[in-house]
Batch of 4 targets.
Target 1
Amino acid sequence: MIQEYLIANTTEDALNKKRSNAKSIFYAGGTEINRLHSTVEGQTAISLSKLGLDTITDEGSTIKIGSMVSLQQLIDSPLIPTWLKDAARFCGSFTKRNMATIGGNLAIMSDHSYLAPALIASRARLLTANLTEKGVYSEDNIPIREYHAYHKQFAGTLLLAVSLSKDDRFVGTLRYALSSQNRAAVTVGFSATKDNEQVIDHVRVFVAVHGKGVQRLEKVENAIENGELTSREDVQLAVRHTVEVVDDMTGSSDYKRYIASEGVGQLFSAFLKGGAQ
Amino acid sequence: MNTIVCTVNGKKHTVTCKQSESLRELLVRLGYTSVRDSDDREGFAGSDTVIYNDVPVYANLMLAVQADGAEIKTAESMGTSRNLNVIQQAMIDAGVVQSAYNAPAAALLLTWLLEHESNPSKEQIKQVLSGIFIRDAGYEHYYLAVKLALEKMQSGSYKSEISPSFRDELTYVGKPKGKVDGPQLVAGEASFVEDRVLPGYHSMVILRSPYAHAYIKKIDTKEALAMEGVVTIITHENCPDVFYMQAGQGNPEPSPHDRRLLNRKVRHVGDRVAAIVAETYEQAIAARDAIKVEYEVLKPVFTVEEAMEKGAPRVHNGVVEYRSGAPENLEEYNKDADPRDGKVVYQFPLHGDIRRNIAAAAHGQIGDVEKGFKEADVVVEETYQTSQIQCTPLEPHLAYARIDGGRLVMNASTQVPYHVRRIVSWVCQIPENKIRIIKERVGGGYGSKQDILVEDLVGYATWITGKPIYYRNTREEEFIANSTRHPMRMTVKMGGKKDGTITAVYMDVRANTGPYGNHCLTVPMNACSKTLPLLKCDNMKFDVTTYYTNIPPTGAYQGYGAPKGTYALMVCMAELADKLGIDYYDMAMKNKVEPGYMLEILKGLGEGREGNVVPVGSCGLEQALTQGAKMIEWGKKVDSKDPDWKVGKGFAMIQQGSGLPGLDHSNAWAKLLTDGTFQIFSGGADLGTGLDTISAKMISEAFCVPLDKVTVTSGDTDSCTFDTGAYASSGTYFSGGASYKAAQDLKKNLLDEAAYQMGEKAEDLILRSPGEVYSTKSGKTLDYATLSHDALTGTGRGQVMGKGSFTTNHNSIPYGAHFVQVAVNVRTGQVKVQKYYALQDAGTPINPELALCQMYGASLKSIGHSLYEQMLLDENGVCINPTFSEYGVPMIAEQPEDFKAILIDINDEVGPYGAKSISEIATNGAAPALAIAIHDAVGVWMRSWPFSPEKILKELGKM
């Protein structure tokens, strides 16, 4: 439960406030922090609302999405690729989409995240801000997979923006839930490139499994890149053997294993057919 | 504390707020009470929607301090009940304003949409409403509401038809005239119990059991009682030693009295352990946390199968008593009773055997089923399982009570104010004249507010403390301590000949009533009584057995047992047709009942007594079947063009009842006011379905006056007369019937008075618009105001009044058929409901626009029940999905792509102006129609709810 609400005036101010207040958290849309049974622990909220992080800009070879951009802004912007709009629509409520932000959704990295599997698979980069131990402000540009792999270590890091490359790359995402606003059992994200000689490269497979978090299926990625997995069935079998699952209210382990493999297989198949970019 | 400045609905506020305060709490504190809460900050249901800096948001998910400098609009920014804006009015006219807890939020969103889009698409409307949960009326007519609003804005009047009209000779009945309480509801004005709570109230909270089955060995409230603000703590040790039943049914109830306010034995996770009353909510919570309880934990049983096992733990093992009809061996039977279990008191024998966990049982038959099965070419026997479903009213169960003039006065959200009064009277051991129940607008009931789940405890606590007390369930408590749909295991055996004739049907219904026996006989019997009479079959038999277990409580839910029984019976019939190699539709047409067919099976299907055998009366079943088959193009295969998606079609015949003949009883009275306007007092409890509008129409139609000349007072036990309540589809037929009779009695008395005043014969007088008496003989007129004035002068003959009482043994059964087309993904198991056509015969639909919306709402909720809704318990009986987003309910995104509700025009011979019931029956069709369509698509029979992708994949052998 939030007991104190502070408004940061600059990104550096936000980081300083975070450092000087124990049990503080960055406050973006508030949909996760304020909701019933929130898993976000914090007593001091540091609002990012005044930092100007709520714009989407065309940077030439990249699209820069401020971390405070709402999911509905993603859907409404002509700059945003279809796959990311699809992911944003996984949040079934328009009202909630007006509040929830891309940065907040990434920072939570929940097992039913709308955006994380697709965004991480897309090989986006993150613009971040930090304070050194001596309190010196610095900004960085990191691969999003690092943010995923070492997520706990980024607890004090402020997400400034997500940078999407305009490279020719297939990205797709699928969500499996009983209804539009049920918790998802599984959300999958897949991306890859294919050059003129039809060589598959830069494969990324991420799966959010309820109860087991957001997982990178690196072995599956490597096997596809190495040409060991060439068909949809191959990929499905590999995912089934790789993904970590658990029984819970969203479905049995068997189901989650099956549907994760089906989802990745479907995206791989679409990729092979030259599906939407 | 922070001081912020914000603008709400154009008014600037400088306010101090706690940093943890939510924006919703602040807005309510500032008086914007339309910003409601139905999900405890879950960010799901949308009752807390506001427009924040021109963007729709959930106020519960924002901190108040965020609003510094913000411009906020709440539902109060729109029109008032006397000056509605165009979308508010259109929502009422379209029929979507029913229980209406979320109507102001929906109106706010649509108003915002029209401010930003002059001609919004269906997709845009769908998007804007995607964060609003509507359980009662569905979403289909919201599209109509926007269309109507646009037409009004563009041309000054509606161009589209709102609904079909019925009975040309009538002016108000059968015509869409709007709901009389619609304006106050859509405007978000004070309507609900929470709006009646006055400052200075005390809060009550409940300590609930963490165990599914346990004795309370010791409970220590000493420390808690000494805490600041604590007024009283009620436990099993100091509550009245009175056994009763929470089900609001006719007295004597066909449910055992198997509980006290608080019991020494807890029987489900969430069962009451202690009730704490304190000056503030926070103090009550703190005291609750300080109570120390020692339990003796017992092994629980959760399923019918577990309860049936030899040597199974006994959920009730106390003394059994009978108020009548006690068996001779009762003393012997009670020898093993454990006093810690309390008692089970039957009002009359229900064939219960609590030592075997049997709460009630019933059996009956016509003809000779064994002979029938021998005559069959094919016999099918299958078992069908339904799951535990939550009613999920947006307004949770709540009550506010106080002492006034030495009496207990309670504002309640109930379907049964007179049963509340009776049961509270019984529990408190005070006479009924000391109790007044005021039924407020009900923000969703669906059967769960037929049960007295909170009023008993609030009433008792108020009576003993003398303090005003407010209690409100949390959403989690709604899941774990509320009435739900009984899980049932139904085995159906059906035999048929090659020509499609059904030769015999046997239904074995095993129901799971959970910890207490609310509706334990009647819901499971309903699985037979509202299904078997659909079939023209001479040999039918049923066995119904209901078991106590330790799951969360069950009770009444819209449709009662019929949705489950219909699912089992219709799917079994489809399986039989499949095995016989004949078309299921042909089989239905061959075996369906027709007008005049004598329903012998009803004899064994009374509610705790012998039922009335009657012939089929008004019946639109054949029209529903033929029209529905044509609409869905039955028999025509559809190719999805995508090999992963297979398309199939299904349907189900359905029926319900119109109240309980011979059991239900309704009363109403009406009076002519001094200015010639009218007031009618109905005992009926309008739970949002438009019952008050029906009462008003009875007067309007009789006296040729517009609806705004009629005021309806209902559900107030002080001013209104007895009514058994709004359940069993009795509202229109019984309560409406009483209002009809009261209106007719008033008319007779008014004509008598007019004859006296005019010096004419009553038979020469008629009533005509705009509200006057006209002599067909002399041509003289007398307006109602003059008539009333003269009747009430010092030489007058007294106020003109009328009264009506409605009972009947007639069974006016509504019939229908629901048709569906689905696409099933053979790789993922996903089901898309492409088409859903609900065709129903409601006799004369008195409020046709409301009737249509109830059909949409009920159909959609049963689609949810069939495809994904289900309460899940862990191995200890803990509900693991007690929130909306974990449980899953249908939102606008889940609507069928092509959704149509069709009213079949049939006039009933008994109901008021030919009306029958409408809404409950609409919950019966989805499950069987979907199961049959899924089979048609992919060849697997779905024999248990919900038909989840996981189950479909398993049936397909994919996993």
Note: Residues 197-298+397-472 of chain B form a domain with the Aldehyde Oxidoreductase; domain 3 fold (CATH 3.90.1170.50).
Target 2
Amino acid sequence: MALKDEVGRRGEDCAAEYLLEAGYTLVERNWRCDRGEIDLIATRNGDIVFVEVKTRSGIGYGHPFEAITVAKLARLRRLAGTWCRQSGLRARHIRIDAIAVINRPGRDPLIEHLEGVL
Amino acid sequence: MGLARTHSVALVGLAGSLVEVEADISSQLPGMKLIGLPDAALAEAAERVRAAAKNSGCALNGHKLTVNLSPAALRKHGSGFDLAIAVACLAADDVIPADSVAGVVHIGELALDGRLRPTPGILPAVIAAARVGRRTVMVPTGNADEAALVPGVRVIGVASLRDALIWHGAPLEPVDVDVLRAPAEDERVDDTLDLLDVIGNDEAILALQVAAAGGHHVFMLGPPGAGKTMLAARLPGLLPDLGPAASLEVSSLRSLSGRPVGRSLITRPPLEAPHHTITAAAMVGGGTGQIRPGAAARASHGVLFLDEAPEFSAAVLDALRQPLESGQISIHRANAVAHFPARFQLILAANPCPCGQYGAGRAGPGDPECSCPPQARRRYLARLSGPLLDRIDIQLTVKRVSIAELRLAVDGGRLSSAVARERVLAARTAAAKRLAATPWALNSEVPGPWLRGVDTRLGGQVTAMLDRALERGAITMRGYDRILRVAWSIADLAGAARPGPDEVGQALYLRKGMTS
């Protein structure tokens, strides 16, 4: 596994842990179809939340959120639709969130969560 | 806090309006959205501000910034809003106190390293801010002298965004930077042009003084090498210093054209001498998006010299008719109207024919002769339209200097510009005193009814020569009034209380002294 995948994997672990602590139930991790991947899918109070997780090991190359582009969000929105059709789950609301994880070596990870970014 | 506001100034022509710059931070993915009708240069402010803030030691908040320029319907141009946008964003992020930012007008363009670049149009912008009651203005150090020319305004010159933030109370250490300055003074009114250099041409020198005294427009006709350009270039030297309002206007126009203004207001009248290939837009002003002043506006309160006048395109010459009449240029666009002052003194110079030699010879063997057919000669001068020439009070022929005049000139007795300016100033003072109860200040502005009014009418004996010319049909009624105006200027110059037969005769000569 390449180092960047390792960093991303650890960041997703942190994000999943954070969501569980915040009262979410995880539904799916790294759900894939032929058009892409959704990092995390979670539910709380009947809402389904699709989460894009972005991890960096520092902010030398910018904040993780800065790497989440409009195109990426649009893809996530399409994937969300696909997932809903396939799973047959009916949700009151669906939402797209972004979680930034800054995982500096030797320090506690820093997690930021933006709700409803699209 | 999440929200902060400050002010900047948007210019349309010379008129500025205060623009409120609001910044809001919302929990969204990072980005900056600039709204409120920015043009292309202003829309790029987001990138400049982001880089400048980062390089000044306090990066912008990592969330979404919405910057609104209000009034939203007014189009905004240029890069002068960068500083206001940067401080509004940082105040919204609580880096600096929002109330400190709200009370200051910010103008200036940011470099990516956080330094402030000198920005064109600072002077009219600060004047506009002062007019709506703003008392504190923050500008780039390179423009601080220029902004300080506006009375009653506290000017804060800052070299960089960091300095600006420190002034507003940010806990940063000052860092010395190289101040960005505008390129050094390129051109100043040339004081070396003196009337002493002119040899012969006594009547032209008199005509220049009369023109300077009364604010009359001049048309000089003569062969190449007769000294038309030399004479015209010396007219600004004869004009008195500009008054406070005029010098503020001249300096503002200079600032708006992006030329350096310097530490003091411009007090000498400007000279604009555009080339004859000039377009109508370059002459009266224009441009897509931002409306910029043209040569006629830049010559306001000074001299607009058109050398080789018949070579100018007819559209350009006729575009001057409105400013000649109203002293103002209005440029209309779908979304705005810009007004520029254009109270210039027009000097036209022309050759008598395409080859230039017509009437130049002094009837001796070997003199150059005109090779143009009469039709070409007539067509050449007909390019100056009647309505334009009609507005020109003084029309005279300039002859080549003869060897006799050159010999005579050595003996002295010529007039220096300084002396001539004194005379012009005295004449203008006399005219202003006489016209004190009227809305006019110069003889050239006075309308016909005043000239023929009960108190100011000249006696039948005085105007006898003029009446005869009118009777013969040599001049029109409008021409009659124009000659009277010039006669008053000649009288003022001579220190006479009112024109006598001699002054009227001279005025008639200056109007009809053309050979062709």
Note: Chain A has a mean pLDDT of 88.
Target 3
Amino acid sequence: MKKRTWEPLGTLEAAVMKVVWTQAHVTAREVCDRMTGRKERAYTTIMTTMDRLHRKGLLVREKDGLAWRYTPALSQPEFEKALADGIATDILQSHGEAALAAFVDAAAEVDESLLDRLAQLIAERRRGRR
Amino acid sequence: MIAALAFLLECAAVAAAVGVLASLLVAGVFLLPWGVPRSRPALRAEGAFVLGTLPAVVALAVVAAAAAPSLSAVLGWSRDHCGSHGHHLHLCILHSSGLRPVLAVVGALSLAVFSFRAGGLVWRVMRTRSRLAALEALGSWRPGLFPVVAVPGAPRLCHAAGVLHRRILISASLEGALAPLELRGALAHEEAHLRRRDPLAALLLSFAGLLVPPPLARVFLSAYQTAAEEACDAEAVLAVGDGTVVAGALVKMASLQRRASSVAGVPAFGQVALEQRVRQLLDAEVRPAVPSRALLFATGVGAGVLCVALLHAAVLHHAVETALHFFS
């Protein structure tokens, strides 16, 4: 199965996820109530954002009376790791021309037998020194 | 309006033609047996950078020199020169010879290809910048001469990034995957890239490559990168004092990337270069690090070529007009 890749979250999406990660099983109203001060947004905006996060697969929801109750599909560390892996794949492909220099050129074809042969060569050289 | 369009298309055609011819000559020079020892990768990198940027420098210098008399007359800096050679086409805004079909087609095609490639390159650079920013927001920063950003995820990133704000990006999980000395070697390698300003040099080579046929641009960039990687390997050996450690780190890193990566394999310079780098590291003697002078040399060569072209602007202008007249 193809591994799911994630895109970085927008500012409001990140703020909503922060609330959901700290307190699972929340409704849009509860998230809205927790977002005060500069983060304060209209209830409908929060509801739309949470619906979008659900469609993206980051939130799972179940009906609770008339409202939806949301739970994170992944924990924060799991999401950050998966996001970092997805971005890293992009970065590895762009090595070279985009002001990046890599220790190893990941976009190159390197087969397993070559790696084994090189590892053997290094081991022999180390043994030869002793 | 027509005069300005004809002038623009003629200049584009000249830039494309000179770029292609100069890159073919430079490619020939690349193939010559130079006798630069393999043990002097820093010197090879400097040569590859100067040669790689030369076609673009020559193309721009020729266009600047060819356009100078007309532009100078438009700005009122010199008197109108066209009366002195009325027998052929004028590369001039004041006395345009009109749109010549062959030149118009070649110029428009060159301009379109250049714009498409330049747009693609700028888009890729901007995208990589935004991806780096998103990744760095997830990581933890360790201060230093070149800050190190340790990011979450599979152990496969060990990159030097940035033109002005230079930093090293590594997967935090590499600390568990590589031995401490191997990690030190990998970081020393990336620090060497940043000291040598290789990310900037690669970016400049990519932009210079816009005036060169794509296969040759790739050859020039890859020649520079291969030599730069070897130069940084040599500095990493200097830092850890043992070539087998750096070679071991290289092979481990390639193996980790192979395991963790879903990146489609592209037959780039990697496979041959990896073997070549490992073999060199095993045979390497510890040598003092040499600072990179690639950017300095290239700036000097570029300024020199432009000065010579502008000093001979009248001759070049006339020669370009004659050539355009002949081909149109």
Note: The two ends of chain A are 48 Å apart (CA to CA).
Target 4
Amino acid sequence: MSKTIVVGISDFNVAVDGDVLVTYALGSCVGICLYDPVKKIAGLSHIMLPTISDFSDSRQKAQIGKYADTAIEELMQKMLNLGALKIRIRAKIAGGAQMFAPANNTNLAAIGERNVIAVKKELARLKVPIVAEDTGKDYGRTVYLGSDDGLMKIKSINKGEWVY
Amino acid sequence: MALNDYGDLNEIQLDALREIGNIGSGNAATALSSMLERAVNIAVPKIRVLDYNSVCEQLGGPEKLLVGILFSMSGDVTGMMMFLLHKEFAHMVLNSLVGSEFDGYSELDEMDKSTIQEVGNIMAGSYVNAMAAMTGLTIDISVPTMNVDMAGALLSVPAIYYANISDRIILIEDEFDHDREGASSHILLIPEVDGLMKIMDSLGLGS
């Protein structure tokens, strides 16, 4: 029986042996799915903010899973430790929605988009190609990643489910 | 003592926030009652300072369907205020005011949306007025924006926006009741830290 491993907000984890990773209700956060199809090793990260250097608070610094520019590399390292090969790893990303119309709150408008840009920049730096993307728009997404097939399943409340 | 985080609030300061919440909730129930033209009862509101994951759990899990109405606060206290209405609450409001149904999964029409936003607006105004009256501070709220989605997705907006300030927020839980239909709503109050300090200072609880 395959297990379901829950990845919380500002967290990341890996799965093997057919286990499934899930992160619930991504809004403006971004979920990054990494997969090595040969070793069937999957990794999922749920980031909240683009870069760690934005904030100097030491309490925040402890949470590497919170930021695109720290979480993804750490997640990849965890996969490499299990025997994944960097050259085989592919990424699928989801989330980064704009949940509320900007109205008069312009700072709020771009948070999802800024997260997506930061994730893409970080994946480019790590030389991991993005093979599927379901980002932006205005709805929440729950993301599943199966370690047996590397498929990313998206579940939404108003628009049903689909697979990448 | 300087406040860095909502977690730094002491018991007396939390009591003051509870009192603001109590009065605000009372005002909101009165406003709701006059809008719906019937009696609305309200249980004693529960007020807690929680981290985001706990807020999600309190609301029924990250995938729970909620109506979120977001406001920004400006003036002496800046920050965000978010109303989270359960399906039953939104249904009660729509059914009483415009006679439509709300199942949460089909798209709301413009009339339904503006009705819910207006109710949120009046209730948010009640809270802000309570806060302003107690503290003598000037607090304005923006026009509302709304969405119907998973609790976790709605909450990600204030969570991200204030991630550099605090992992915790102030959650006020109200249970409104009319004609024996229990309907709850939650209010997230997310003042920026200097606004919170102004509130405490004006109540003589600054240090």
Note: The mean pLDDT of chain B is 82.
